[in-house]
Amino acid sequence: MGAVAVFLETTDKSVRSTSLPALTAARELAKHHGGPVVAIVVGNGISGAAQDAARYADKVWTFDAPALKDPIAETWAPVLANAVKKLGATALVASATSTGKDVLPRAAALLEAGMASDITGVKGPKTFRRPTYAGNALTDVEVLTPIVVASVRQTEFAQAAPAASAGAVEAQDAGNVDPLGASFVSLHATKSVRPELTEAQVVVSGGRGMKTSENFKILEQLTDLLGGALGASRAAADAGLVPNDLQVGQTGKVVAPKLYIAVAISGAIQHLAGMKGSKVIVAINKDPEAPIFQVADYGLVANWEQAIPALIAEIKKIRS
Amino acid sequence: LKILVSCKRVPNPEQKLKFNSGAVDVSGASWQVNPFDEYAVETALRLTEKGKGGERSGEVVLVSIGPKDVGQQMRGLLAMGADRGILISGDDGTLDSDQVARTLRAVVEAEKPDLVVMGKQSVDGDSNQVGQLLAGYLGWPQATFLASIVLAADGKSATVTREVDAGVEEKKIPLPAVVTVDLRIIGKKAVRNAALAPDSAEWEDNQRYASLKGIMAAKKKEIKEVAAASLGVNAQPLVKTLHQEPPPARKAGVKVASVEELVAKLHTEAKVL
Q1: Which pTM does this prediction carry?
Q2: Which of residues 13-72 of B touch A (CB under 8 A)?
Q3: Average model confidence (pLDDT) for chain B?
Q4: Chain B CB within 8 Å of residue A133 CB
Q5: What is the structure's pLDDT at A59?
Q6: In chain A, N or C: fewer CB atoms in 10 Å?
Q7: Nearest-CA residue of chain A relative to B171?
């Protein structure tokens, strides 16, 4: 078998930390495939990022062109597919970020390769474990095509560390890039001073029981005291209490922090799918029958109105 | 304006999953339409409407793959207002994403819609692939995870916003195209066809329910049954399911009586504070 290509998302200067778990998965897969790990970076003005990628991979192929500036699937998917063909790679992996989820299946179609989504484990050269049914079934799948494509659940693979020696960076020509008339207009990024939800050691999430956006401020206080990230249930996001990108669950972000604190969240199956992998789960809910208590290591039956200020005070006390 | 919407049935996600001989057992499942596919139907209907409850212009065609029973779920979507359905025979329990995408490609080539609207993922397989695969096979532009869509007055392009990890991305795509919808697409002002509906148009939050009139009308609407073999699709799966099992159960937790006890346990027992 051949090389393992790993698509890395980057800023101008460096590999995004969300892509580091894909490198770890690529290393595991390379043990089965026998070939090198080749990082693929795509964009415009990304020579710094390519150098950074070289710290992690055996080789870096960089596709750096004005026409590739924006992350659109119409241009990036063919670049990935062509790189895999030219390399003779037998695997293509990437983290299951929103970009990875958008681009990778399209690349798989162009390669006529089978794809396993959101893998949580590598079991062989072509076999993977992945969650299905909102994490209520663990499914082992075998990809039957000569080339395998897989997106990687970030929380299930460690962040890769730099290798002992840096790989070579090779600039590649993307050739004719056709966006098929599609264009990226703008990104309205949610500004946050807090760590990324998917990478935070502590996540504090609020549910619809928080009632108003104003009430989330006290959760922000708790979040900042713990140096964590703020999350929310789908019900809270749907009700407009918080921006949708805070949503944790089957259809939102998957998190696995050391400490997850669920406040006024009942614990719908689709929410549990996004946080069940957390090391320690704390649930605070006034309803003793709330399903969230079934997955919580520590449950406190209480109104958040009383419990959260008390919790903030108590944490400050033990820290002083 | 002709819009093709894919739909599939899923076991009720609130029901506890059963397992039998290393596989999920859906024999006793109660079936429903995949929630994201209902949102896709709502999106397509709004794109053919002059406003909430207003006149319609255009056609919404449903397509599903599965046994005849799936006709029940399709009938419900026809009752919401979709115009007709195509049901392709197949075992929806074993198809992989690629087989679905290849089959849909054949339907797109026969129906020639201006737009394909799909749910971003099914809540059973959770693969989140079919829309992207279909767009790739067709060589059409794609816009996944839509929070909103406005179809231009000339009907030649769409401006969309997409749910991405960092926030919301705006993208413009020419038609024909494939789009997949996320949760917020069913907001009041998330969907509009500028050729039909004014800027001020708004709908109810959430997908519509079928009215009694809609249910009666749906009985007369066509669901055309098509044999998969007649589409001439290479039906070899690319991904095979080997084994399924429930995840390990979390160790039973404890209830604490007070905030003080909670903090003490997190500090000294769990050592996370």
Answers
A1: 0.95
A2: 13-14, 17, 19, 24, 36
A3: 96
A4: yes
A5: 97
A6: C
A7: A184
